[in-house]
Amino acid sequence: MKKFLVFFAVLVFSAAIFAATLKDAQDRISVIEEFKTGISNASADGFFSDEENQTLNLLYQILEGEEYTATSLDGEISLHIGEYSLLETKWPAELEGSFFDGKITYERSIDILYSDAMEKKYIPESEMTEYQRRNYEYYINDYESRLRAGEKFFYAELTFKVSHWQGPAEYRFEPVALKIYKNSKRPRPIITLDETDSKEIFQVSERREFRTAKQLAENSAQIKKILKNESKSASQEKEKKRANSEKQKGRRAFYISAETAADNLNFSFSELTSYTIENMYGTLSLGLGKFIFAGVSAGISLPSIGDEEPAIYSFGGSLGANFNIKGFLRPYAHVAAHAQTDDSVILKAGTGIDLILGKFMMNLEYNYNHRNNVQASEDDSPENFSSYTAGIGFTW
Q: First and final CA of the chain: distance in angstroms?
């Protein structure tokens, strides 16, 4: 036992001086498995004593206490970078890795954007100055030449952990993060991706049980605790994402609505059926910060369709403010102006509410309207009236 512990101590010490690598993880697992085989063979009944099991757990803790790395610089990961896409302004890349004697296969597709590689915002070509265009073309050609010549101008680094698992020779591969580095004088990560959802269980040797029933129960309880904590963390992360989606932001939606004009809307069934839909609108609303939104709309007067005169269309804009409640209710108030093809202008002031179900949205709105015909005679007076709209559409 002392020989294995001394060898393991050497491995731990070397990993403490240098960053723990894939080889360190593989060596530690090999030492653990040799330790288990040696103790099991020397035991009369083939099982570990409590003292030996404690020593094994200490070895597991040392294995699990480190984060290990595998990089494309050392050939532990293959990083294949495709040709630069002028249309999408990126280098498509594929990563492949085979770890622990081929028991774990890691594959990932990733895009290295021009803005990531240059570490600055990409300016569309149509907006570039002549100097910026020359710089853009120079760096693309330079990077392409170096990549095609086999220079490791970019390299990948995968950080992961390893945990012992349920079976007698089972371990769990737990990726933490994938980083893409720009290999300059001072290598630095230009892309970092969270990989914590890519866990995988693998077995390193034959299934030979060495634990007593008590030790198995303790191991099982530990695994359940780990899974419970991970489930709790996943739920918290999901709740955090949900809360972020519910954060206050300006109204963003596209919807189709129907409008009826009535000073006093009666909601009895007999009265509702007597109302006619006078206008149909398509509206696009975009948020301007946390509370403000602006919108544009186009519509048509349904009674004007089929008349001898041309149909009446309207085009307008709006400005308003909204408030989000629990992510599914969004009351708002706005003012709007619509110009119609019959030479009339309608000014609106109103309030409404959106009922949000995921990306789907239903809308109800009330407006007080002031209509004025720019071609009207002096005898024609402006018209004031109320209107109600109902709509459906999408929000994001």
A: 62
3-state secondary structure the chain: CHHHHHHHHHHHHHHHHCCCEHHHHHHHHHHHHHHHHHHHHHCCCCCCCHHHHHHHHHHHHHHHCCCEEEECCCCCEEEEECCCECCCCEEEEEEEEEECCCCEEEEEEEEEEHHHHHCCCCCCHHHCCHHHHHHHHHHHHHHHHHHHCCCCCEEEEEEEEEEECCCCCEEEEEEEEEEEEECCCCCEEEEEEECCCCCEEEECCCCCCCCCHHHHHHHHHHHHHHHHHHHHHHHHHHHHHHHHHCCCCCCCEEEEEEEEECCCCCCCHHHHCCCCCCEEEEEEEEEECCCEEEEEEEEEEHHHCCCCCCCCEEEEEEEEEECCECCCEEEEEEEEEEEECCCEEEEEEEEEEEEEECCEEEEEEEEEEEEEECCCCCCCCCEEEEEEEEEEEEEC
**278 Cβ partners below 8 Å, 6+ apart?**
259, 260, 261, 301, 302, 303, 387
pTM for the model: 0.58
> Which range is least confidently modeled, 66-75, 88-97, 138-147, 229-238?
229-238
Question: What was the pLDDT predicted at 62?
Answer: 93
What's the pLDDT score for residue 92?
96
Q: What is the CA radius of gyration of the chain?
A: 34
Classified by CATH at the fold level, domain 253-395 comes out as Porin (2.40.160)
Residue range 252-275, pLDDT digits in tens: 999 999 999 876 655 555 555 667
